[in-house]
Amino acid sequence: IYRTNLDANSHLEITMRSESNGCYVFVVDGAIMIDANDLSSRDAIGIYESASFKVQATENSEIVIIEVPMQ
Question: 53 and 35 in contact (C-beta within 8 Å)?
Answer without folding.
Answer: yes
